[in-house]
Amino acid sequence: MISTLGTSWSIVPELFAFTNPQQLDLYAHHESCAQIAAQRAEYGIVGVNRIWVVTTEKMRTDRLREWAARIEMPIDIWHPLGVDELASVRENRAMADLIYRVVLRGREVTRNGRLYLSLAGGRKTMSAEMQQAGMLFGCDALLHVVDRQLPSGIERLSDQDVGAFCAPLPKPYADIYQPLVTLGRCPPNAALEVHPSIRSADFPVPPAGGAVPPELPLYEEVRRRLRQADSLIYNFSCQVSQAEAQSNFHGLYMLPPDRVKALRATRLGADSARTQADLGWLAQLPKSDLHCHLGGVLDAAGLIEVATTSAAQVREREAVNPELARQLKQVRALAAAEDLDGLRALLGAATAQTPDFRQIRQWDTQEPWGVCGFLMAFTDRPALLDALVFDALRDPARYQGIGIAAYEPLGDLQGSALLQCEASLRAACAMVRRAARRDRLRYLELRCSPHNYTRGGLSAQQVVDILLDSLSDETDCDIRLLFIASRHRRMSEAIQHIELAQDLRAASADFRRRFVGFDLAGNEQQRSPVEMRDAFRPLLKACIPISIHAGEDQPVNNIWEATYELSAERIGHGLTLHDNPELLRRCVERRIAVEMCPSSNYQIVGFRDFVLQAGPDTQYPLADYLSAGLRVTVNTDNPGISRTDPSQELYKAAAMTPGGLTYWEVLQLIRNGFQAAFCNRQDRRELLGRAEAELMEWLTETASRDV
């Protein structure tokens, strides 16, 4: 709690007794005690653990400090150096600057708590500046105390009597003070949150109270920001006049009008000659990825790197398993000779067919050593492995519309085939982190099915523990987990993952923070969303966020079932949503997000890529969704299998849109990703704020060729 202070120090106990009745119940005998308690409950007032006070230099604070010591409450008191009367404009501005500094600091240290501001102490100008500070920097409540008249013939309590304010006030004194909440939560002023955000480190106060030189840098900066807000209003009016369906990063509206116009006019994905320049621009942007499967993150080099962490175990298995040794000897010889046809023949595939990599798992009774040994044969030859897996599909123009049945085998060397031991899981996580840093990912939701990684002897809980331990200390990217139930597997396996999520949420606070949602994936033809309703009921009862793969290659009814039967908050792919305009409208109104994955959508379903001049004439629905106000996000799906990364996905989205996407639209897609994150509201807000600050710093400090 922060309060200004005038001649009466007792205003602080009067306010403290309102916020902390368990510690000091001054109003126990108040005639309106029940109403006071009801007001606390109405505004969610909770006890404070520190009191900060701003006053003038001449005010005595010894009794206030004595009172605070008696009730064992920390208190810090500041005053502007040399300011005692507030008799001049300069003195009042110095006081305003100090109040702003203290409130700014208070807001920062209470990000995960509560900040209450008092309007009751000191001169009216001090109260006015305290209220202004709350409106500028945000607070959780503005408090006041009304001082009633005592009945005639009764003297007021003496300010000398500190003890009188350390216990419940007797009648009639209890009734003369009436604490009030004059205003509930105040959000911070947007003009002060855009880049560069105002930070207390730039406008410090002594950490434990004291005198502060009467300078005005924060006061002047606030005035400058508020004047600059005229540009914000202007650009917001432009937004309304142009009928934008969604608002973009708030800081963008603070840019000069010509800069905003350029962002709205400049397009990427419209000219193949500019592909590298476009990708370079995208690479600088902070991003999120909400739809990324752990089982599809590795490219050829990554597969080899992960497998190599188990080299010792592979050698041990070869020593006791002659069949494994024989098979791996053949693979090594063929790889050394770069004999692709021989490798395909060994794996039962003709030229231009994807080999049956699943048979490698049969070479050894223990997993994943056969797959690891196979991949290690390509050490120093990742291009050969890449050719073996993808063959003609290495040409993006040919890697389109192949269908889910041909797409899934491209991942048969990773996921549950490879990640069956602690070493491979940790190595894969290390590669996820490395890629996130490279791609400027600031938030990643990684989805997986832990029970699928237990064939090598790990338990599902051990798998989760390894993932959390390997990912949770990443500082550049906030990485969270989703679990997946697969349509094409037995219902009992889906229930296993649902029960795993329930058990771990009940047992671990760390898991509750890192686990953010549940997904239904797999071939949509195998099981519809409505068939999963009973199984998903415990998730819905626990209010766990739900994402459902729906409308990827099946009719829009699957999306309807996902939203109305399973209460999905996000839809994976959602490519057929436009077939039901009323459902699309409802998704917009309910802010249901769509996780679009341009590369895999192009590769599996087939849409027109206007840069490659490849694919059928079918138009990708992303631009129409965006225009309708749908919260569209762009994601990687399986970056290793789809041969992509977050920047390439944004570019692919533009390339699959007639005329490309504007820079403004790309930034809208990025903002949507942070807004649709399944983490809690406070984390989501902080992520969005940091992403905006990073974006605005780059836009304002880096000279762009086009903007």
Account of the protein in words:
- This protein is an alpha/beta fold and 707 residues long.
- Among the domains are: 213 residues, no CATH class; 146 residues, no CATH class.
- Helix content is 44%, strand content 12%.
- The protein has 29 helices and 17 strands.
- An eight-stranded parallel beta sheet has the order 9-10-11-12-13-14-15-16. A four-stranded parallel beta sheet has the order 1-2-3-7.
- Helix 9 crosses helix 27, helix 11 crosses helix 14 and helix 17 runs parallel beside helix 18.
- The longest helix is centred in the N-terminal third of the chain and has 25 residues.
- The radius of gyration is 31 Å and the shape is elongated.
- The C terminus is likely disordered.
- This is adenosine deaminase.
- One of its GO terms (cellular component) is cytosol.
- Belongs to the metallo-dependent hydrolases superfamily. Adenosine and AMP deaminases family.
- Its cofactor is Zn(2+).
- One of its GO terms (molecular function) is adenosine deaminase activity.
Structural class, please?
alpha/beta
β-sheet strand percentage: 5-15%
Distance between the termini: 45 Å
Helix content: 40-55%
Residue windows where pLDDT falls under 50 for at least 5 positions: 703-707
Count of helix runs: 29
Tell me, what's the shape?
elongated
CA radius of gyration = 31 Å
Q: What's the mean pLDDT score?
A: 92
Q: Largest sheet at a glance?
A: 8 strands, parallel
Q: How many E strands?
A: 17
Strand order of the largest sheet: 9-10-11-12-13-14-15-16
GO molecular function: adenosine deaminase activity; metal ion binding
Family: Belongs to the metallo-dependent hydrolases superfamily. Adenosine and AMP deaminases family.
EC number: 3.5.4.4
Pfam families: A_deaminase, Cas_NE0113
